[in-house]
Structure formats: C-alpha cells, structure tokens
Structure of ROK family transcriptional regulator:
Amino acid sequence: MRTRHGSSLEDLRRFNRGTILDALATSGALSRADLARVTGVSRATVSSLVHDMLTDGLVVEERGKGTPHKGGSGRPPILLRLATPPGVVVGVDLGHRHIRVAVAERTSVIRAERTIAFDVDHDAAGALDAAARLTEQALAEAGQDLGGVAGVGMGVPGPVDWRSGRITSAVLPSWRGLSPGAELERRLGHPVSVDNDAYAGALGELSYGAARGFDDVIYVKAAGGVGAGLVLGGRLHRGTSGIAGEVGHVQVHADGPVCRCGSRGCLETQVSAPKLIQLLQPAHEEELTVARMLELGRQGDAGANRVLDDAGRTIGRVLADLCNSLNPAAVVVGGDIGPSPALVSGIRDSVDRYAQPDAAAALRVTAGELGDRAEVMGALALALNVSAAA
Amino acid sequence: MRTRHGSSLEDLRRFNRGTILDALATSGALSRADLARVTGVSRATVSSLVHDMLTDGLVVEERGKGTPHKGGSGRPPILLRLATPPGVVVGVDLGHRHIRVAVAERTSVIRAERTIAFDVDHDAAGALDAAARLTEQALAEAGQDLGGVAGVGMGVPGPVDWRSGRITSAVLPSWRGLSPGAELERRLGHPVSVDNDAYAGALGELSYGAARGFDDVIYVKAAGGVGAGLVLGGRLHRGTSGIAGEVGHVQVHADGPVCRCGSRGCLETQVSAPKLIQLLQPAHEEELTVARMLELGRQGDAGANRVLDDAGRTIGRVLADLCNSLNPAAVVVGGDIGPSPALVSGIRDSVDRYAQPDAAAALRVTAGELGDRAEVMGALALALNVSAAA
DNA sequence: ATAATTAGTACACAATCAGTATTAATTGAT
DNA sequence: ATCAATTAATACTGATTGTGTACTAATTAT
C-alpha cells in the first residue's frame, strides 16, 4: 500500500489520487468499481477522483472494448487506463565500455534506442559528450526534440553521493570528483537524476523485470566489474554515503592480485568479464568476446561453462554471506554475463552450500529479465521518478 | 515526519493525532502553539486534537509551572505532557545462559528488574516457566499484578518467524518448532510480542541507546553466540523469513572446528565468550568468567586484551564486508563482551583495514549505551509497540 | 418483455482542517 | 494602578473531502 503524506485534507486527496494512479500503473486497465475494490476507497470517491483525473487528462476511458466481465451479466465496466502523458523521458546507461540511450514514452514504452562502444572509464568528458549526442539522435528518431523531454535519468559506472551528485570514490581517475548529472544537464539543458549503474539495474529489474513485487532483493551486476543494488523493504538501499552494494571489493583471495581499488584479491579481480575471457582464451584460436563466450556456453562448450560456473560459485560465495545477513527473497543476476545459465547455477550452488539452509530455502536465484537493458530501464525509472527511489 | 496511514478522514485524524503524540514523546513537554509549529498542523486542529486527548487521558496539562517564555511577554503557554498511561509493560530477555525480566511504566521507566542464570538453550520449557515466575515477582515488587499489564515483549535466543511466531532454525533442539510467544502467553494470560535477542538488542539501542537517530545501523551482539540486528532505513530489517542478521555463521576459517549449526569454521566458533575464556584460561589459576576477563582487560592485562582485540578483529573482518554492502552510519557493539574497549577497537581496526575507505570513513563504531540491558529494553520497546518495528 | 446483475453517479451528510475573530493571561511602560 | 503589547488558546465559520444511499445505466438470462 502507499505511504507518506502530509496532514491536510488536500494531502489526503492527493494521497488517494496517488493510490489510484499506482493501481492503474501496476494493473494496466481497471474499472472504477475495480479501483474501489482494490484500493479500499469508496466508489463515490473513486468516481470523483477519476472525474478530476479525466479532466486533467491523466487517465483515459476505454469504452465498449472487450469489456471482460466476470459474472456474465450486469452493466459492462468502463475501463480506465493511464493516459500517455505528453513528452518523453530519456534514460542514459553509461557502462564501463558502452553507452546506451533510450527515449521512451512516459508509460516507459521505448521509442528509440542507441548503443555504442566507448571507453567510458578513461574519458568521462568524452562519454558525456557522446551521451548527449546519442540522446539528440534518439530524440530525432522518436520524432521529438529536447523541448519534449520530461525527464532524464542516468546510470554511471561508479558510486554517486546522491546528495551532492558527485562521484565519491576514487576508482576511476577520469571520473573522480565529477558531477555527471550537472555535466549532462549542462549539455542537454535539462535536469538529470543520477545513480550508479548497479542501482540503475536494480531499479530496472525492480520496476519492470524479475524483481517486481519483491520486498528484499539483491541485484548483482556481473560485467566489467561486479556491483550490487540492494532492494530492502521495497526500496533501493543507498546507505549513509550512497555507496551501499559495493560487493566487488570483498576480498576472496588473501594473496590474490592487486585490484584497481588498491586492495588485494577482490572479487572483481577474480570474476570480471575480461578475466574470464583471459582464462578461456588459451583454449581457442579466435579472439574471444563476452558474447562469444556466452554463445560457446549455450552450445555446451565445457571450458566456457566451467569458467562461468566457477565465476558463479565465487560470486555465490560472497552472496551467501550477504544472504545470511539480509535474508532476501531473490537474487537477480544482471550484467553482460548475467544471462549465462552456468553462471546463475554456479551462484545457486554456492549459495545453497554456504548460506544457512533457511536463508537459502527462502531464496530464488534468477537471471534478470531485462538483460542488457536493465540499467537503461532503471535510468528511465529514475527519470519517471517511479516510487522505488529512496 | 510520520508516515503510513489509510485513505479516510478518520485515518487522517488518527494520523494527525499520532503526529502530535510523536512530537510529545520526543520533546517531552510542548504547548499547543509549539505543537502547531513543530507538526505543521494548524493551531485550531491541534487544539481540537489535544482536547480529545485530554478527554481520553492520553496527555496532561502542566499549568502554571515554570512556563518558560521566549519573548518575555505574552500569555504563558500551557505545557502538555504525555500522561503516563495506567498499567505497566513487561520486557523479557532470554539469553543463552540468563533470564532477565523488567517491569516498566509505559514511559519506559523501569520499576523492577530480575535477573537469574539459567541454561536457557537446553531447557526451553523451564526457561519460560522461570520467566513467568520472575515476571510475577517483578510485578509484585512494582506493586502491580497481571491485571495491570498493558503489554509484554520478549527476546529469545534464536530466529523467530515473525508471522507464525515459531522458532524456525534448528540450532537449539529444545527450542525447535516452539512458539515462545504463545507459550509465555499461556503462562501469563497476556499476548506477547517476540523477536530474537539480537533484534531486541538493536531495538533497545535504537529506541533508547547509542543508535538513536541513525537510519542505518548494525547492532552486533557478541556473547555466547554472535548475532546482529540490522536497522536499515530507520527500521529493523527482518528479511523474508525473519532470519536476517545471522552473522554468527559466516565462515571465517575454511578448516575450522565444526559449529553447532553443522557448518565449519563459523565466526561463532572463533569468538564466542566461552571460546575466549578457554583461550585465556591457561594463563590464569583462578576460574575465569566473562566479567573477570573484562575486568582483567580494564586493568591492562595484556593477555585478556589481546584475546579481546583479536576477537574484535575477527568480528570486524566479517562486519567490514557487511559495511561494504550496507554502508551504515554506525556499528553498535553489544552482548556481554561488548563493553570491552579492546573488542571495540579491534572491530574498528579491522573495519578500517578491510572495508572501503569511503564506507569506513562514514562509519562510527561504538559500544552500546545500554550494556546488558539492551535486550530487555528492546523487549520493552516491543511491548510498547514503539514505531521502529517492521 | 422482465428480472437480475453489475457499473457508475447525484446528493445529502458528517468529519475534518484552516482562517479569522475573540477571549485569556501575562509583561512592561506610563 | 492602568493600559498597551504580546503570546496562547478557543469559538466560529467556511471549504474540502470521503461515505452511504438512492438512483440511473447498460447488459445478460429467462
């Protein structure tokens, strides 16, 4: 149920209106009677609120259509649906090595999309320039211009202090101290909501993907690095300084190689996508890529599946401890190696082995539903200011 | 600000009433005008609500007293204070080896307290019998009987499924499958709210101790076992099946001794209070106890401090990973060895070493303020149904 | 056609909050 | 001592809102 509002009558009405909009957002199309049943608000009030919302153009009636009815007889309901608000939202996903931009209707239906490879890590300014250029291209393809933009969200490959909007951590020199939101805003002339890429992915899967409806979820992004977005109590957990979920730098080998973070034997040094390719390369003549590795896995290549399974077990070892502590309902695996069944089953095996039986029993481990779109969908959710934000 | 309520006018009024009660609970004594300023509710509404509350006996006026005034002139305010509601609340803390019962006014001022040593782990039924007996004794001391009890809360040494109220995990045979709340209710004739002891401790420190005012806190209970209560986003995080915070069974030595949970090398096998005493005993002729060990540490005994410091480092190693994931504002150390400065500084050192610098910098590591009363105070908070519950 | 059933609305009503006097109680200046 | 100034509390009025009841609308089954 919805929460959080003020103390006046006006607030109360706004609250009820929000409850109805939420119900419509999750259920698609409902009649006024359905809304009254679902929300607990009386039919008369629903009628009144819906009337206002129709006047404001927030919802539209869907008359005469199918009008499916349960009992058989009775007056057919007039279904209500959220109106697609004018304008579009823009989602920007800055990965370590790619930039993806999506332009979507405010119902989050994607209208245009652009992806390019880019060395984001080492050229922050260039990446932001490219993102702005891609945004303009995608807007043009969608038949829009910057004036029609209602919101912009962005995921960036590093921890963001979500009060100041600055990149706090020192992992990527070209990003250090930067305010990526302000930077993109300068280029687009529109405010930008920013979160790190793992949070964006979590938000994407939470709003539109495999994590929908769960209160406590760990979203793991396994790609060039390893990060996590934690959904706790139905909300994204960012922590005191906005760096919660940084599981990539948990030490898994005391005497492992030195990580870019300065520590030794971090999870990230063991299971990053480049590392896996490096492990697998000697067995192949062709130049391997992540996509090729996953394809080999699908085709049953033992080496590829072994590498992915081992990586899953290593990640699962870390997640097991976290699941012991957090007892979540689901682990959703994303990132570009996330779709690998071998990786997911490796995580599952490791969690089953190392987490407490009760925690493991309550846990569902799945690949994300959105694939490499999770982050950009999350960026769209940020732009739409969907409720799940903290 | 307060949150969470329904959609009707009645709900709105209840909400505003709650807002006022909250303000009074935190600020002690306020005039109606103060309340209007603090809560944002209009003076007229505050007057009306306060009138109702006076009629119901929820608040009392404090006329003529000091009546401190800011400006100097003007009609002196009538201060309002929460009335101490009739009746008392009972908190029961079942540790592994002790039982503690407190009877408190509903303002959480403790009226009577009883503590005994008891082998709770191996005799659940006996422990509950003893708890009921102690409750009656403490009630008598406070000049009350069971009829005057307004609420009972209890912390138990094992994970509780907080929907069914049953002990879920299999760690303690005599407790397996038991419904301790229902059992104590049968003995006292009064409903009992139950949580595990680490949650109770967290709730105690959150409501009355070192964790007050923080949104994200890890409370660690270091005693016969090691457990944690996680406060995330200002609320106790119980997880999907109510077993969140079970950090005692994180593996810290792959080839360590077998734990009572069946796994090997669990944190609990390395740093439980009995284990520390066992480590320290050879250097002493007298039979050591936990209290004596802490006293030795205070007196500067190198061995005792070394053992405690090492234990802190081991715990800190586990907490570092958790702090990387959760980025909390504070770690509060409780349990019977929690007051040891060596333990706390060991945790601090380990966290500084193994957690990311940003997460460590945001973190405050302290001993709990409530000492061995944390759990029973948390049980009182449960009984008072203080807001922090999930 | 008619009854039954379900959806949606109109209207009277009560609950609630806010704004504006009005009254109350005190200080300080004359 | 008296009176203005100041702050607190309340009474009253008015507007907004949600609910319940009665009513109309639209369809199916008989």
About this structure: The CA atoms of residues 99 and 116 of chain B lie 5 Å apart. Residues 8-10, 12-13, 16, 41-45, 48, 67, 69, 71-76 of chain B lie near DNA strand C (CB under 10 Å from a C1'). The two ends of chain B are 17 Å apart (CA to CA).
